[in-house]
Amino acid sequence: MQSAGFLATNLAAQNQPAAPARAEIKTTLMLEMLKGSIEEEFELAARAGFQSVESLTQYAAWSDADIARVRSICRTHHMTVDTVLAQQDWKKRPVSIVDPAHRETFLGDVKNAIVYAKELEIPQISLTSGLAAAGKSVEQQYASLTEGMKRAADLVAEAKLTLLIEPLNSLVDHPGCFLTSAVEGLKLVKELNLPHVRLLFDIYHEQISRGNIIRTLTEAAPYVAVFHVADNPGRNDPGTGEIDYPNVYQAIRKTGYAGYIGMEYHPLADPLASFTKAVKGVQEVWARA
């Protein structure tokens, strides 16, 4: 995947200052928000205007034949798969980075995700901290989280990929999750200080966990590889709840962010119309001078 960068008009020949740089933004869609065959999901994403898709769980069930189909579909629609979650069924198994007893299972998940990533040229693998470990202090769990991230980062770096950590709210969707705020996730990423470890900033989760989204994302943006979008309450279409997404997008744009903005919400009406509108909402902000 070509790294995101900045577009600027080169006016050096005329001895004039260059136009302000504008960040390249890629819109992506979580496949698990859709229903249908692989072909139907990718076609809807392409028709809605997305440049890429992500997957939480679907990819792990793809056979060799499915992978070949996905490659063909991506070529047809000029799309990519940009991110997959490593830990399948992380609550039920369970598999948590904060519990040292789960370490080898967790690293096995990362290795398995790397195999799929290499097969499909997926540049990023995402993680969640997992559930808090009973009987262990916060300090012990954070130490385990740090160690687990370092070991996963070594595997991902060897594969020339990027590792993302996503905090999840524990108040509504993920009771018992250890890492629950982008503030905590940013602290972890900064402490690790590795160029191939980045933050997946879910705006919906952060609104539930702490609010204060614009101030937090402004600080976090240099360390973010993906922003996830959904409104609160309900995890539905942007504009149907309490988050002022035009202002949020404007704040992201002002940081010079050059990465993915991903729709991870349950549309209230027709999915194609909903996701088309969501893509346009992002594009309109970045089209402004």
Mean pLDDT: 92
* Beta-strand share of residues: 5-15%
Enumerate the spans where pLDDT stays under 50 for 5 or more consecutive residues: 1-23
Determine the N-to-C terminus distance. Answer: 27 Å
The total count of strands amounts to 10
Shape: globular
What features would you describe in this structure?
The chain is α/β, with parallel strands linked by helices and 289 residues long. The protein has a single domain (23-284), classed as Divalent-metal-dependent TIM barrel enzymes (TIM Barrel, Alpha-Beta Barrel), CATH 3.20.20. Helices cover 40% and strands 15% of the residues. The strands form two sheets. It has an eight-stranded parallel beta barrel, surrounded by six helices. A two-stranded antiparallel ribbon has the order 1-2. The chain is globular and about 50 Å long. The two termini are 27 Å apart. 42% of the residues are buried. The model is unreliable at 1-23 (pLDDT under 50).
Search tags:
single chain; 289 residues; alpha/beta; TIM Barrel; 8-stranded parallel beta barrel; 9 helices; 15% strand; disordered N terminus
List the helices and strands and how they pair.
Blueprint: E1 6-7, E2 22-23, E3 26-30, H1 38-48, E4 52-55, H2 64-77, E5 80-85, H3 103-120, E6 124-127, H4 138-158, E7 162-165, H5 182-192, E8 197-202, H6 203-209, H7 213-220, E9 224-229, H8 245-254, E10 260-263, H9 271-287
Parallel strand pairs: 3-4, 3-10, 4-5, 5-6, 6-7, 7-8, 8-9, 9-10
Antiparallel strand pairs: 1-2
Helix pairs in contact: 1-2, 1-9, 3-4, 7-8, 8-9
